[in-house]
Design brief:
single chain; alpha/beta; Rossmann fold; six-stranded parallel sheet; 15 helices; 17% strand; elongated; binds adenosine monophosphate
């Protein structure tokens, strides 16, 4: 895998696709700069080896040139993070961009305006990609968050750089860390799959069954499994039409010698609310009118035991409605168990959606081995798909 570490950028104008799709508040200030921070190693690497950076990104989903989606709003934050005044060009192609690039000197950073001001970006338009490509001597993709999209700046553009293209350090580390689980995972390998719906995780589960020893199923999706095997789940979340699929997963797991762990008890509530009355019930015998919204204490212990004995851990999806304090305990306990196993030498990867929000919220990010930066992109990698943004660099 060729990365910026393998290239001498001396005197080169390097076109870098980054993911600066950051949240802004009402005053159009950046409220979470994680994605800007994540691009720092790649950008510094290029500048230190004598190049200049032309940064391309999207921000939100603009329909026209709406000001609220202008990347101008992040210039201040990016300048603060990189410690270099970030220049800005109010277009990403055409004469304004070409002039800004011509004036760019070694060690400087130029940020281009939102790529999605042009619908050609998401359409993967080749002419648009060519106009972008014209701006740089070298192409680097470091936008993991959009690597699963075959857009002009993430995939199509790479055709115009037959040999002068490589991975940025963020994108490379996302690939390496997924491979540590799916390719070279040390046994026992445990996957924890939680979240709301089994339908959104089915392809992930099917793809990982060959690579794991234990499968912990938690969260709302566990109830489709419990109901399918004859349990009473009260008013808990269920996908009625996915019960056969759940049974099929359990059968496949058995054939592949994967041990499946489902919740044995739950925190049941009389309404989906922080103010609900709660009780602890067996996961397969929840009274009518009550819904399971978190893993119960015995479940937490059992899950923790499996995790403690694991050498490789993948966590995708919370095991309860962790956004409400009353139903956060299971997810906190699970995160703590993963942190503890990590401290004892296990490799742990957290990725693909809400579990990332959970580790951040419960301040566990530094206690797991790797937290992925891309929700949808990570899910697609776990599904075993080759992402267009990754393939384009390999070609
Ligand atoms: P996902 O995006 O599929 O990973 O789902 C994450 C969502 O699942 C979170 O917003 C959780 O609140 C929700 N969730 C987790 N456990 C449950 C549950 N037992 N019942 C309903 N929703 C749940």
């Amino acid at each position: 895998m060729k990365t910026v570490n393998d290239v001498n950028f001396n005197n080169k104008k390097v076109l870098v696709r980054v993911d600066f799709n950051v949240p802004l508040n009402e005053d159009l200030e950046v409220t979470d700069a994680t994605r800007i921070e994540a691009a720092k190693p790649t950008i510094f690497n290029i500048l230190e080896s004598g190049g200049s950076c032309i940064l391309m990104s999207h921000l939100g989903r603009p329909k026209n040139r709406e000001d609220q989606f202008s990347l101008r709003h992040i210039v201040h934050k990016a300048t603060e993070i990189f410690g270099v005044q970030v220049k800005f060009c109010e277009d990403c192609i055409g004469s304004a961009a070409e002039e800004a690039v011509a004036n760019l000197k070694e060690g400087e950073i130029l940020l281009l305006e939102n790529l999605r001001y042009y619908s050609e970006e998401t359409e993967g338009n080749s002419d648009f990609a060519k106009k972008l490509a014209k701006l740089g001597d070298y192409y680097v993709n470091d936008a993991f968050g959009t690597a699963h999209r075959a857009h002009a700046s993430t995939a199509v553009i790479a055709r115009f750089f037959p040999s002068n293209k490589c991975f940025g350090l963020l994108l490379a580390s996302e690939i390496v860390n997924v491979e540590k689980v799916l390719k070279d995972g040390k046994s026992p390998v445990t996957a924890i799959i939680g979240g709301a719906k089994v339908s959104s995780k089915i392809t992930v589960i099917e793809n990982i069954l060959d690579k794991i020893d234990h499968l912990i199923i938690g969260g709302g999706m566990a109830f489709t499994f419990i109901k399918a095997t004859g349990g009473n789940i009260g008013g808990s979340l269920v996908e009625e039409d996915k019960q056969d699929m759940a049974l099929d997963i359990l059968e496949k797991a058995k054939q592949k010698n994967v041990q499946v762990h489902l919740p044995v008890d739950v925190i049941a509530a009389d309404s989906f609310s922080e103010f609900a009355n709660i009780t602890t019930e067996p996961a397969d015998n929840i009274p009518e009118g009550w819904l399971g919204l978190d893993a119960g204490p015995r479940t937490n212990e059992q899950f923790a035991d499996v995790i403690a004995a694991s050498k490789t851990i993948l966590w995708n999806g919370p095991v309860g409605v962790f956004e409400m304090e009353k139903f956060a305990e299971g997810t906190i306990k699970l995160g703590e168990a993963i942190a503890k196993a990590t401290a004892s030498g296990a490799f742990s990867l957290v990725g693909g959606g809400d579990s990332v929000a959970a580790v951040k919220q419960f301040k566990l990010s530094d206690k797991v081995s790797y937290v992925s930066t891309g929700g949808g992109a990570m899910l697609e990698m776990l599904e075993g798909k080759t992402l267009p943004g990754i393939q384009a660099i390999m070609d």
